Amino acid sequence: MGLMIDGAYHAEDPAPDTDAEGRFQRAKATIRHWITPQGPFAPDAGRYHLYAAWNCPWAHRALLMRALKGLQDTISVAYARPRRTDQGWVHDADGPYSDPELGVGALHAVYARAAPPYTGRITVPLFWDRETEQPVSNESADIVRMLNDAFPGPDFAPAPLREGIDAWNARIYADVNNGVYRAGFARSQAAYDAAVAQVFAALDKIEDHLAANRYLMGDTFTEADIRLFPTLARFDVAYHYAFKCNIRRLMDYPNLWAYAREIYAMPGVADTVAFDIYKQGYFSQSELRNPLGIVPAGPVIDWTAPHGRDHSRA
């Protein structure tokens, strides 16, 4: 995905993404400023710009929170092209994949404006501050929480539930959100076997939990549900095939599948989902996973089918 070292972009990333046992290791985000009313980054309407990509689940978290909070007119978005190049995430000069904010051709040009000079991978989402002309954060979990806490709209992480939400977030990240990547990017049979087993053990537990609970936190829809949904949206169309997470499909879990469709039906959520683009991204040419770059035609999935969960929400 490219790497920046002291503000200079390198198309070849010299750092391995797997350990000696073939286990995938995700690089940590390092731009982690915080938006607060009293700090240098105040939650002013129209001040911030979000760099995202339709096929990235980490960016999807931020897009979901932005939509569910009703912040579409407060925070602008630029979408990168679905397939990365040797320049990483890139933008067209105009059209739906352009950057109307800075007019950059590649996202690394935005990272190059960071002070001090940035060292790290070029990832989305990236939150940009127009006032200081600096990146605020490239950590999706922080961006999601900041959008919830600092801006007006529904509270998806209420204080009485935060301990439980944070516990769910930790489990979902390790076993599901990042778990599918540990399966898909594994470079040994043992690493894959361990990762894929952990993914489905977690999904099995969530399936059982949803048999008695409408959402992860009982009757209250929270940030934990928002952070789980991007993986569910990509599961059958991408992870099941491209990442070999094929023990079961999302559609094979009655509770999880109905839960996912209910979230998809919430106002604004479907506008953050692009199934065809997911396939373009996850089935892009890869020496290890898809050497010919052929994108499959299926599967055909009806996300608009009635979910049967229309009882009132607390």
Protein architecture, described:
The chain starts with a strand and ends in a 32-residue tail after the last helix. Helices cover 35% and strands 8% of the residues. A four-stranded mixed sheet has the order 4-3-6-7. It is of the alpha+beta class. α1 packs antiparallel against α7, α4 packs parallel to α7 (223-242) and α6 packs across α8. It has two domains: 3-150, 3-Layer(aba) Sandwich (Glutaredoxin); 159-282, Glutathione S-transferase Yfyf (Class Pi), Chain A, domain 2 (Up-down Bundle), CATH 1.20.1050. The mean pLDDT is 94. The radius of gyration is 19 Å and the shape is globular. It contains nine helices and seven strands, in the order βββαβαβββααααααα.
Q: Main traits of this protein?
A:
single chain, 314 residues, Glutathione S-transferase Yfyf (Class Pi), Chain A, domain 2, 2 domains, four-stranded mixed beta sheet, three-stranded antiparallel beta sheet, 35% helix, 8% strand
